Amino acid sequence: MRRRVLSLSLAAVVVAMSAAVSGGVAVGQGEVREDLVVNGERVQPPSGWQAPRKIEFGEPRAHGGAHVQSSIRSWSTEDQIAYLESLDQPPLTAQVPARGPVPDKAVDERVVDERVDVDRGVEITVPPVVGTATGVAASTADGTIRPAALTYDGTTPSSAVGKLFMLEGDTVRSLCSAAVVVANNRSTVMTAAHCLDTPGIDAVAFVPRYDYGTAPLGVWWLAAAFTSSCYTDVETACDWAFGVAHFNNGVPIQDVTGANGISFGYENVWQVEMHLYGYPARPTWVGLGGEYQVRCADLVDTVQVWQNRYHYSDCLMGPGASGGPWLAAFDSTTRLGIIGGINSFMFCPDPSCENPDTGIHTSRLRSHTASDYASVQNLYP
Fold first, then answer.
1. Nearest alpha-carbon partner for 337 in 240, 258, 230
2. How many angstroms separate the Cα of 313 from the Cα of each of 121, 289, 345?
3. Distance of alpha carbon 41 from its chain centroid, rounded?
4. Domain ranges of the chain
5. Which residue of 171, 197, 233, 348 pairs with 353 in a disulfide if CB–CB is 3.0 to 4.6 A?
6. Residue 307 buriedness (CB in 10 A; 0-12 / 13-18 / 19+)
């Protein structure tokens, strides 16, 4: 049977924030800073690099109900999450994007290399930051997760990972996962580019530690998002995006959730332990319908697919998991780590992805990613 490659957007985005730094630029000014500095180190952008493309979102407003045409951000958290839950949701299938011919083998060849090669010109790791809500918290999940060689944990979610809602009017166009990442503006969220690259999106809501219709840490609306200039709907090697979240009551999201660190420059990895997070709706036995945050621990390798290399995990996290982080140096107490990738795509025999042929892939975060991140992290909502 011909395999189909399925990008995993159905719902979920992860937001990341960093320590406060002066001299930022307002998102509304539309300018992306070009002083590409990360952790005090100058980033040398790759040849041909261009500033990431900006997607601006309007003030979220409901088109019906008790708060007609009022700003959703002014509502209570309970009213905001109730509104999101009341909207029409996309079906638990996803359209398969046109990404070129599918290889005969979903994973053509593992790049077996004991070394960890670093992309020349960038070798930067930014450590995570603890927030007021960071730590182990119980979930309301009561389902039994099927035993597997991998570790699936749906009961101890991370505060710095959440579910992403993409809205068009009063309809949820798609759902993804996202994570908060350390940034100077303390308001940066990281997810997959294909989650946001959808015409007609009016507003995007990020709900950290979303848990079966509840928002224990509030609802955070994105002011804007930025996709890489090298991303297209047929080029999955640059499937990352950064969003800038509005403050809630004058407080940036990172101060509440904490933020994952991030690392750039790894070319090949072999049997590197990473913890993958997301809100997968498929396969059903893993995702519990996309209502709970799931973590899967695995040893990650680099593989060749089509003309590009990706990092690969056997974790089965389908539609809804897109944008969820791959965390190295994972801390089981804070539930934070170093982002080394984000859920991007897997191969499935049909769009439902209930019985995937392979695990999940991520774009490698290299110098292009570092340049994008450096240009966004000083933007303020």
1. 258
2. 27, 21, 11
3. 25
4. 4-22+37-42+49-380
5. 348
6. exposed
